[in-house]
Amino acid sequence: MPELRQDFATKEWVIIATERAKRPEDFVKERSEPDRLPERDDKCPFCPGNERMTPEETYALRNGSGPNEPGWLVRVVPNKFPALVPDSRPYRSRSGLYLRMKGVGFHEVVIETPRHDKCPATLTEDEMTGVVSVYKQRYSELNRNPTNELILIFRNQGKQAGTSLIHPHSQIVATPIVPPAVRRTLYEAERFYDAMGRCVHCEIVNYELRVQERVVMDEPDFVVLVPYAAQVPFELTIIPKFHQASFGEIPDDKIGPFARVLWTTLRKLYYGLKNPDYNFAIITAPHYSQGEPHAHWHLRIRPRLTTPAGFEMGTQIFINTSLPEENAHFLRQVSIPEPSSEQ
Amino acid sequence: MPELRQDFATKEWVIIATERAKRPEDFVKERSEPDRLPERDDKCPFCPGNERMTPEETYALRNGSGPNEPGWLVRVVPNKFPALVPDSRPYRSRSGLYLRMKGVGFHEVVIETPRHDKCPATLTEDEMTGVVSVYKQRYSELNRNPTNELILIFRNQGKQAGTSLIHPHSQIVATPIVPPAVRRTLYEAERFYDAMGRCVHCEIVNYELRVQERVVMDEPDFVVLVPYAAQVPFELTIIPKFHQASFGEIPDDKIGPFARVLWTTLRKLYYGLKNPDYNFAIITAPHYSQGEPHAHWHLRIRPRLTTPAGFEMGTQIFINTSLPEENAHFLRQVSIPEPSSEQ
Are A156 and A276 in contact (CB under 8 A)? Predict the structure, then answer.
């Protein structure tokens, strides 16, 4: 019998389609080996030596070299084809019946490594910590501008996940609006807080740690879960155990632990499911909700193992063809090699 | 400069990414010619002669033959791997902190033609009318059961759109819940109605017919639009000009005109964009909102020409890399062959 499950935070229902359910092993595809990538590609705008092929950098982690020169470890540049661009205040205007505004905002690319042939799962832990520290630097910088109402840090890994450039990179978009979907989730969290006097995400963390059925990793500061109402197979959430509304508030001494848990989780996917395509995004409070007792930032990972279709388009109800508890069990047991044994 | 546009009905914002915008012609891909399909495939459960490979049919249009025998024109069967299954009343239960319920509902497949090698664009107009009349018959039948709170008729065309079986078919899912996304859209429509005393979709139809910028087809009873805030390139909406909350209320004498406009629209996509993959869904009022003055059914088509990625996952804001007005202009000019010249 299929089962409908309600997400405790968002109130979205998901169909867990047991009649068509697959075993976790069924999602391990022998993916066609990509052409072995070169360490550096002359034509890649993100490779060292090609710094002039991007707009001027806004930030970089470097070992002493000058801006827009090789020698960087992580490099941030404005997106050459931005979805939103910096400009003056984003006033609304009418277009006949409709409302529109200039596409004001920021769209940055975080080039995660000089190496063309890497992905997060094959970086070192230190390199991942560098990337996450840059996330925080850029978040804090963009957050100074109150026009940036929402800042989204996200990553598209692989062609199925919508990436166009192979060189490892994440993206940051700052929007001048809070979209209805984000607002609605906050509203649900606020209602829970007003009724129960607790943050709904703190409540989920406490409950999941007690029952342990969907916990993939339990670290001192972070927990990795397959959500009870996961929308897609092997969906994962990394939630800080400490309450914090906005990613920008993460203390410096938690950056390393967060990078480590993200890195380990991506390595479990990489080794357990053989390098699946995925998206991840850091879900965080909008500018004016920072510090709120009901908002709680977290990182969501969605492997692209199935294709949402017309039913999802028409209802926003996802059909998940796997069991969250089985997914979590599978990922707990994935053993990842010692970094020293790679390369 | 990119532009943000707000959907007048749902209040969702969309980024029209002019900096990375493509011309309509850029979406016309030379798609790899699929293996020329046979008219009939021995192994296909939807081909005539293989009726025993599906569950027993729930309905069919036939020329005199008996149930589950060849000789049908359109055949409806329960999905063999259903997302939801018929059962007693869908009571909620607790699973610790969470809410769940049995996956009660209906999941049917509408086999649109005996011919394995067709798609809606290559059916005849009469065949399409048959399919749409079956949609209405099934909608009305499923709608008798008040447990079916929402009935979604949808179609997945092509692999990119999530289809698994090639033989032309649509699907109908009846859910025992109204999902939050549907509820929110209705709530926005209700607010508009309470303020203005008019249906928001009637208002959009009137405005679009006046300005004509995004109209693809203007028929006596239906209009085909590229929405002002289209979320993906070549998104299309077919809206009845007459106000009607639920698809189940469509009068019999409008089934032909609706089938004709749907058929012509899909043919424009087929010939104009060279057989793109797409999803379509009939967005209609839930069981208890039928007859409401603010709800207005319509059919939405989404070609799968781009890949929503981490930004869409994190914000539900879509980035559309094309201009709705250009898309509409392009589709208006697509000439489709006379049916007699095909085959």
Answer: no
